[in-house]
Amino acid sequence: MKQPLIKVENLKKFYDQRRGKFWEQASYIKAVNGISFTLYEGESFGLVGESGSGKSTTGQLLVQLIQQTEGEIYFKGEDVSSFSAKQLKAWRKEVQIVFQDPFSSLNPKKTVQWTLDEPLALHKLGDKATRYKRIVQTLHDVGLDESYLSRYPHELSGGQRQRIAIAAAIILKPQFIVIDEGVSALDVSVQAQILNLLKDLQHQYQLTYLFISHDLHVVQYFCDRIAVMYSGEIVEIGETEKIIQSQQHPYSKSLFSIVNH
Ligand SMILES: Nc1ncnc2c1ncn2[C@@H]1O[C@H](COP(=O)(O)OP(=O)(O)OP(=O)(O)O)[C@@H](O)[C@H]1O
């Protein structure tokens, strides 16, 4: 039996959009509006849905880049919002996020070595020599070698940049990674290489993924289970193959009609 890693209960994120003379009138964008689900250790869980349905907001909530308006996130049974500052810092090592465009997540003025050393230094993980060893090992894990250490993001291809972003995410040996449109900006052949790399890393490090994508073919290939989001809510959830074969909700039906034809 797979163990639950993350449990989300009635999670909500509202953005206040009151402005100027309308300040008196409450008006909220309900980006995420009461979602509940469980992620199990070692699974790839896909989040699909149209643009603006709340996928990225959900991903950012799960790693607490943003805080929820309401609801709970439990990590291995512990309520994340009850963590002390010290517990929160330790937890931040366990959860990472990889974005679509590594140009925005990689500092253009910093070398690969700096990028990979930063999380280790921040968490005070070993002396310089130990950290260097870990950096080189992690580069190998993502299919690159030492020759990349002195390079800057603009000197790398899109696929190499995404490998570095993945290396930065796995270097702290996390248990959970959100991949937000992580291969969407890449050519199809490079996409396949990165997806295979993510699968290899998942087995090597027993990673759990939340995989956000608008590409249903990619999701079908990559994910064990999926949830369909619509207007801030989860309208369907289940094993990938089952959902692809027969959807219950009208929105999912229209969404999946393109993969089934
Ligand atoms: N910081 C913010 N302030 C105000 N509204 C926001 C903010 N972030 C997201 N939203 C709104 O919340 C809703 C959900 O956005 P979100 O980015 O989570 O959707 P998404 O499904 O990931 O879409 P996409 O695929 O286009 O990224 C949208 O209406 C968006 O405009």
CATH homologous superfamily descriptor of the domain at 1-94 and 176-182 and 207-261 = P-loop containing nucleotide triphosphate hydrolases
**The CATH architecture of the domain at 1-94 and 176-182 and 207-261:** 3-Layer(aba) Sandwich
Mean pLDDT: 92
CATH topology of the domain at 1-94 and 176-182 and 207-261: Rossmann fold
Could you give the order of the helices and strands? Answer: EEEHEEHEHHHHEHEHEEHH
Number of strands: 10
The total count of helices amounts to 10
The poorly predicted ranges are none
Largest sheet: 6 strands, mixed
> Mind telling me the C-alpha Rg?
19 Å
Structural class: alpha/beta
CATH class identity of the domain at 1-94 and 176-182 and 207-261: Alpha Beta
* Portion in helices: 25-40%
**β-sheet strand percentage:** 25-35%
Strand order of the largest sheet: 6-7-8-3-9-10
Quote the distance from N terminus to C terminus: 35 Å
The bound ligands are: adenosine-5'-triphosphate
Gross geometry = globular
